[in-house]
Amino acid sequence: MLKALGKCIGQYKKDTILAPVFTTLEVIMEILIPFVTAMIIDEGIQVQNMHNIVFYGVIMLGLAFLSLFFGVQAGKYAASASTGLACNLRENMYGNIQKFAFSNIDKYSTAGLITRMTTDVTNVQNAFQMILRIAVRSPVMLICSMFMCYMINAQLATVFVIALVILAAGLFLIMGFTIPVFKKVFRKYDDLNASVQENVSAIRVVKSFVREDYETKKFSKASDNLYRLFVKAESILALNSPVMMFVIYASIIALSWLGAHYIVIGGMTTGNLTSMFSYVMGMMMSLMMLSMVVVMITMSIASANRIAEILEEKPDMTNPENPVMEVKDGSIDFNHVNFSYENGSGEDVLHDIDLHIKSGETIGVIGGTGCGKSSFVNLISRLYDVESGSVKVGGIDVRQYDMDVIRNNVAVVLQKNVLFSGTILDNLRWGKEDATEAECKEACVQACADDFIENFPDKYNTWIEQGGTNVSGGQKQRLCIARALLKKPKVLILDDSTSAVDTATDAKIREAFATKIPGTTKLIISQRISSVENADRILVLDDGVISGFDTHEKLLESNPIYQEIYDAQMKAGGDFDEKAG
To answer: Rounded to 5 degrees, what angle do the CA atoms 16, 22, 27 make?
Structure first.
């Protein structure tokens, strides 16, 4: 964990070193001020020597100025180092997440990743700043104050040692009860963030089912759990102050009584007693601050472990040493492929898939929910790796390609269509960064998206809200298809990505594919027979195995699963919107 986080200090190593250096110098200046104050009292005020008062007063002002200067520098460098560490942590986590395979992403919830990059990083940032400042300042102040006390009067200094032991025992006892509660508090953050993320992303569903009250109560419950745990932790932690004040006042009383005794018998001066009061307060406050640092560090350890988990996560898929940089054609070969989402789990999502697709063919993929259709096509673009067997595109195992090359040549329009905030052109150019407006329009014509775009006042410069909330489901799907077509792929996969368009538009899209991109291999996953019946061949999957792979006519004659789907859809009157054509 420390190694992973330490690497993220990066260019802020200098600031990380200078912060404790200046903090130490600040403390040394502060330690010398009570010593000079004693000199002013003993050698100036009590003997009525104005020269000594002015001389030592100037020295004290100089020490105070230096302490202020060193403190400002320490604060500046500590803030720079801690903020820089937080910035690097977020950038490194975000960069590593971008390299994750789907199998890596499956390990973490969206809310968990957001918490790690926000709350967790903030906790580590605050703890790091406290380490650079208070965790350096307090021990130095404690040691130096104790040293000065022993120089002044060793017998009186022993009183402080006893007081420190009592105070330390009390504070650590309090922290022993507090730290486990803070750990529970932190684990509740994921629940709270998950509630917010889920509610905001599905706000339309919440409103359509009139579930606002239910969601509000659910959030209030998560928020209330955090509140109760925080109150419990802070209530225990609040005992720090009375325990510290009891020990400080007891020390001051003991110091006053014993100090007066030593002054009377001549073993100590008034100035020395005054400086000891200052040192005692410094020691007690240092221990109090240390207790707060320990609590903060303990809270941040959980955050640091969660951050390190992301930083140290190795992508399940990497490029080979000498990757193939060109895809010859769109032929696809599955050679006895077995696949499961958890390797070695024994629960195959796909079992012994063996089939061969020629370049330029149009293949329909159909089957019941959970039969493995999406898993099947995800292997072609190497979004997941097979457990055994091989998947080849253009005659070469997909694991031998550079991952950017294979994914640029195998375009996938996933079930969940995602658009990003920006103009329509910005979204289309995700498919090809340097695409001209003419190329974008041509792709939209093929995807049957040009008709509704031309009806917008700003046409292709129309602003798309985050998640595409200002366009319909069917419009969103067609924009995503156009975006994929801009890549001019060797293989185009439509994963149930025309489900929100009517069958007439669906037919137009398929006709455009046949005429405009005849050399591209097309795999169309659909729940509708009408979307796949004109394909060259249709793959029927059943519980992860191939039930049939043939033409529409032959499957109707020989495959009971396909017959059942056909009868359910077509003999009952066809698709609900089929007559729209």
So the answer is: 130
